[in-house]
Structures are given as C-alpha cells and as structure tokens.
Amino acid sequence: MKRFVFSTALLFTLIFTLQACQNPGTQTAQSEKEKTIYPKGDLAPSEFFTGNAYVHGLVDADSVFTTAAGNVVFEAGARCNWHSHPAGQILLVTAGKGYHQIEGEPKEIIRKGDVVKCPPNVSHWHGASADSSMTHIYMVPNTEKGIVEWGDAVTDEEFNSTK
Amino acid sequence: MKRFVFSTALLFTLIFTLQACQNPGTQTAQSEKEKTIYPKGDLAPSEFFTGNAYVHGLVDADSVFTTAAGNVVFEAGARCNWHSHPAGQILLVTAGKGYHQIEGEPKEIIRKGDVVKCPPNVSHWHGASADSSMTHIYMVPNTEKGIVEWGDAVTDEEFNSTK
User: Fold this and answer.
1) Across the interface, do B65 and A35 touch by the CB < 8 Å criterion?
2) Distance from C-alpha of A81 to C-alpha of A50, rounded to nearest angstrom
3) ipTM for the complex?
4) Which residue in the set A10, A35, A137 is minimally distant from B10, CB to CB?
5) Quick one: CATH architecture of B42-160?
6) Domain coordinates in residue numbering, chain B
7) pTM value?
C-alpha cells in the first residue's frame, strides 16, 4: 500500500510538472507583452478604417523635421480606406502578415521586416491579411506638402481579391 | 528492490522533465530570433563607431521621399561618434537600454519605446548603455540637405559620465 501511495504521488507530480511546462500561463502573457514595442494605441475611426485597427502616434509633424510617424496594429481583416499622401509614405512592417495595394496594381502580401513605399499622390491601402494581424510603423515625409487625403473604404471584394 | 527501482525511475523522469522545462533549448533560440524584426546587419566601421554596432539599411535616400532610415544594433558599451545631421534625426528605440547625448546637455537614458529627436546641425551621439545592448531605427529627413557629418569618437569618460 505504501508503495502504491508513493508511486502515485510521484506520478501526479510528474503530470503536474508537465502541464505547468506546457502551459506556462503568466510567463507566456509576459513574453507576449515584451514582444510589443509600443502600447496598442487608440481604436482607429471607422470613418477611415474597416475592422479594428489601433493607432499610436510617435512623431507629430512640425516645421523642423517635417515628418509624421506612428505605429498601427491591424487585427486580422482590418484595413484603412483608400488614401494618398501629397509627399508619399514609407511603411516598416514590424509584425505579422498583411496586404498593401497601390491603385491599378495587384494586391501584395507584406510581412514582418518588409519596407513598403507608396509614391506621392498615388492612391493605396494597407492592412492586416484575412487570417493574421499586421503591425507597421508609418513615416510620412515632407509634411509641409500635406499629410493624408482619404478616399473610399476598401470593399470585401477588394480586400479578398487575389488578382 | 522492485519498489526502489520503480521509484528511482520515476524520480529521474521527473528531474529530466524539469530540466527540459527550464532549458527548452531550440524553443528559446527560436523565440529570440522571432523577437528580432531585422537581420543584425553589417559591423559598423570603427572609423565612426566605438565597440560593436551593426547597421541594416532600410530606406536609401532618394529625391522622392528625401528620407534615409535603417536599423542599428549596439552591443553593450558600443556607441557612434559625435556627429550632426543637416536636417536633424529621429530615433525610435525598439529594444534594450542606451544613451543619447546632445552637445552641452546631460547624457539621457533611452529605452525601448522611446522617441528621440536631435535638431539640425546639433552635435549628438547615441549608443548602448554600459550594461545593456540597445537597438534603434533611425530616420534622417530632408536628405536633400545632406545626411551626416562625423566628428570625434565618444571617449570612455564621456560615455560613462553621469553628469
């Protein structure tokens, strides 16, 4: 009987240890948080965005640096409206997988580490992919020329197009 | 004797499981890699840097966006020389802890998530802290005015100064 109790106790300890190992709980939540460089930011306005996107401003345009920059987190399926920038825009994709499309060109898949440029006064949109979130830093140069001109929302057909 | 063998076997299994749990090996290496957005880049020239820093270019200056950008990883103790930018510079600290100093001002501690601006034609230096690496994205706006003018190396006295 003593042997049975001892062995069972050891077995339960082993099972418990394995479970703790596979589900480290707090540790996982913490390392997820550590991966994020910036706070999630504010929910982007539905007037210019479809789905949930969060914007955290980093650099406000001024007359010295004439540059605006910020961080945007797009949840899967979320995207901004078609829009253009008088002096163009540069995106640095820092996490996940998303889409970018310049008007008249095929939709391109963009991934963590990619750099995307959209020329001045050319309409484009960007966002998460259908099945993954995407985070990017945006840079708008030469803001003395203007920052952004918003257009129509990106339809589901446009978002899901593979052409 | 059978009881001893069985218990010992269970005990070793438990110890082995705990060790595997604490030292997940490949898993840790993989998640470290996943944390890094960009490749480490090329070793920065000792002419302009003290210690080991690695530069990975992201955006080459051109006449359309007039912006240069890149990623720099500074190992603990590494820093760039004193230098200035004709149109200023913006730094986005994405990992670790480092130092930034504008000439005539105290050295400031900069951390992951911080945004640092240095005005046009003002001498400054940036790098890791003494005990931690630091990674930042740099943005140089209005590159039609020039990109960088290098000065003297940052001495150990300057680097370690707490004033």
Assistant:
1) no
2) 7
3) 0.80
4) A10
5) Sandwich (2.60)
6) 2-35, 42-160
7) 0.81
